[in-house]
Amino acid sequence: MRGRAGEMLVIGYCWACALLLPGVLCCVLGFLILKGGHTLGLELIFGDTDPIDALLLRRPVFDGLFPAMVGTLSLVVLAVGLAIPVGISAGIYMAEYSRGAVKRCFSLLFDVLAGIPSIVVGLFGFSVAVFIHRHFSENIYPCLLISAVSLAFLVLPYLIRTTQVALEGVSESLRLTAPALGASRFQNIRYVLIPRALPGIISGVILSIGRCAEDTAVIMLTGVVATAGVPHTIFGGYEALPFFVYTVASQYADAQELSRGYGGAIVLLFLCGGLFFIAFGIKRRMMHRAVYRV
Amino acid sequence: MRRLDHVAELGFRVAAFSSAVATVGIFGFMAVLGYPLLTDGRLVEVLTSPWLPDQGAFGIFPMLAGTVLIASLAVLLAFPLSLGCASFVVVTGPRPLAGLLRKTVSVMTGVPTVIYGFVGVFLLVPVIRETFHHGSGMCILSAALCLAVLVSPTMILFFVDSFERVPLSQINAVDALGGTPVQKLLYVILPQAWPGVITGLVLGLGRAVGDTLIALMIAGNSVAIPHSMLDSARTLTAHIALIIAADFESLEFRTLFACGIVLYAFTALTVLLVRTVGTARKGAR
Predict the structure, then answer these.
(1) Nearest 10 degrees: CA dihedral of A59, A65, A69, A70?
(2) At B44, is the secondary structure helix, strand, or coil?
(3) Closest partner residue to B26 among A98, A124, A275, by Cβ?
C-alpha cells in the first residue's frame, strides 16, 4: 500500500465503515420513531383503561402494553434475584479462593455457559418443566418461574465474570492492607475488596437486567404467552415486552396493533439501550471482555 | 470470626460449584433425553438427512446448512466493516469522532435482537423483495444483513481492544521514523494484533450461530435445502423455536436435542479456540 492514492483509499474505507454502522442505527431509530412515535403516551401503555385503575390492578388492560411491562418487570426481578446471590458468590470464589487447575476448569465451564445460545437454555428449561410435570408434580408446566430460572442460568456467567474481573482489578497494595492489620480473609473481602469492586459488580447486575429484559428466545420456550393479562402467580403464563414485539411482527391483526408494536419496540429499545448506557457509564472500559468471555 | 470465615468460604464454593454443575448439567440433560438418537449411529443419519415429517424422516441437515450459510455470510459481511470501524476508532479517525463511534458501538451491543428482527421484517425485507423480485424477501441474504449489524459491535470492541494492546514503544517507533497513520495500521498494528482479530471473529461467529430471533423472523423458515442467497432457510435455533409445540415423546421432538447438542458443541469449540489463541498470544510475548 504505497503512495498517496493507497493511503487515501484506506482512510476513505475507514470513514465509509465508520459512517455506515451509525447510519444503520439511525435508520433503525428513525424508522421506529417515524412509524411509532405518535403512539407514545399513556394510551400506548394503558389503552382505554384508566391508568390509576390499571396500576392498582382494579381493571385489566386489554389494548395496552401494561400487562407485558408488568410481566417483563416481574420476570427481571425474579431472574436477577435468583442469579445475583449465586453469581456474585461464585465470582468471589473465582477471584479470591480458587487456584490452579480448579480455577482453570471452572473458568472454562463458565465461558461455555456464557456462550450457550439462549434458545438452548430455553430448550433445557422447557424440557425440565415437562420432566417435572411428568414425574413429580402435575401443577408444573412452562410458567413464569421456569422462565425466571432459565434466564437466571443465562445471566449467571455475566455476573460471575463481572464480579471476578472487578475483584481481581483491586490493586495488590490495597488487597494486603487489611490482612496486615489482622483482618481475616472474609473481613478483607467484605470490608475492603467488595466496596472497592462495587462499580464493576453493579454494572454487571445492570447488564444482567438488560439481558433479561431483552431476551426472547428463552421465554418463548418457557411460558410466555400472547395474552395473559397481569401475572398473578409465578406458576402461570405471563406476557413480556420483547415477545409482544415478536408476535406483532409475525402475526398482527390490524393497523392499530401494528402501531402498538412499533410503540412497544421503541419502549423496549430505550429501556435496554438506557440500561447498557448506565452500565457502561459506571464502568466504561473492558465491559465487553467480561460479558463475552475471554 | 473463624467460623464465619469457614461458612462464607463454603457458601462461595458451593455457589461456584453449582454454577459449574449447571453448565455440565445442561449438556447432560440434553444428552440423556436425546439418547435414543445417539445410539447405533443414528446421530449421523439425523445430521445428514432431510426433514420430511410426512415420510417419517426427521433429519436436520437443511437446518445445519441454513445455520452455516446465514452465519458465515453474516460474519463475511461484518468482518470488513468491523475492521474498518476499529481502524477508524484507533488510528485513522479524528479524536472526537473516534470516541463518539466507540460509544455508539458500545450502546449498540445493548440493542435487543428482537428490535433488529422487527425492523428487518418491516424495512429490510420489502427492500430485498423489490430489489431482487425473488420470493417474499425473507431469505438468507436478509437475515445475514441483519445479523451482520448485530454481530459487528461485538467484533469492533474486540478489534479495538487488540489494536490498543500493541506496545506503545512500537507505535512511537513508527511515528519517530516518519510513518503515516496508514502505514502504522498496515505494517505494525494489524500484524501484531491478529490473535485479537481472530478472537473477535470467532466470537462474532458464535453470536451469529447462536442468535434465534433474526433468523426466525427474517429467514423464512423453509425446510428445503437452500440453493441461493435469495432462498428461504431455517437455522438450528429457529428450528428449536418452531418445533417446540410437538409431542414431547415424539421422534420429531427428540431431534431438537440433536440441534441443541450441535449448538452446545459448537459453543464449546469456539471457547476452546479462543482460549488457544489467547494462550498463543501470551506465549509469544
Answers:
(1) 10
(2) helix
(3) A124
Domain ranges of chain B: 2-33, 43-284
The mean pLDDT of A111-118, rounded to a whole number, is 91
Alpha helices in A136-216 (DSSP H): 144-168, 172-180, 185-188, 194-214
Instruction: For residue B50, count CB atoms less than 10 angstroms from its CB and return exposed for 0-12, middle for 13-18, buried for 19 or more.
Output: middle
DSSP A44-55: HHHTTS-HHHHH
| pLDDT band, residue A110 (cuts 50/70/90) | very high
The secondary element (H helix, E strand) that includes residue B51 is strand B51-52
Task: For B108-122, give one letter per residue: b (16+ CB within 10 A) or e.
Answer: bbbbbbbbbbbbbbb
Q: Which residues of B touch A220 (CB under 8 A)?
A: 241
Q: Compute how many other C-beta atoms are within 10 angstroms of the C-beta atom of residue A81.
A: 11
Q: Inter-chain contact A118–B212, Cβ cutoff 8 Å? A: yes
Which CATH superfamily includes the segment(s) B43-284?
Answer: MetI-like (1.10.3720.10)
Mean confidence (pLDDT) of chain A: 87
Ranges of chain B whose pLDDT falls below 70:
1, 40-41, 245-246, 280-285
Residue A84: count other Cβ atoms within 10 Å of its Cβ.
19
Residue ranges of domains in chain A:
1-39, 43-291
Can you give the pLDDT at residue A51? 79
Q: What is the CATH number of domain A43-291?
A: 1.10.3720.10
Residues of A in contact with B115 (CB under 8 A): 28, 32, 245, 265, 268-269
Return d(Cα A147, Cα B14) in angstroms, integer. Answer: 23
Interface contact A246-B158, CB threshold 8 A: no
Q: B-chain residues within 8 Å CB-CB of A35?
A: 122
Q: Which of B3, B26, B187 to mutate to test the interface with A (most CBs of A within 10 A)?
A: B26
Bridge-based pairing of strands B57-58 and B51-52 is antiparallel
Q: Is the ipTM of this complex over 0.85?
A: yes
Alpha helices in B35-189 (DSSP H): 35-38, 42-48, 61-87, 95-108, 113-119, 125-132, 140-164, 168-176, 181-183
Q: What is the pLDDT of residues B110-123, one digit of tens each?
A: 899 999 999 999 99
**Chain A residue with minimum CA distance to B94:** A15
Mark yes or no for CB contact B271/A111 under 8 Å. Answer: yes
Whole-number pLDDT of residue A283: 65
Q: Which residues of B touch A29 (CB under 8 A)?
A: none
Burial class (CB in 10 A: 0-12, 13-18, 19+), A139: exposed
Rounded CA Rg of chain A = 23
- Contact flag B260-A275 (C-beta cutoff 8 Å): no
Alpha-carbon distances, residue A187 vs A87, A88, A171, A193, B4 (angstroms) = 20, 16, 17, 9, 9
pLDDT digits (tens, 9 = 90+) for B206-244: 999 999 999 999 998 888 888 888 889 999 999 999 887
pLDDT for position A294 = 34
CA distance B194 to chain A (A): 15
Cell of A233: 402467580
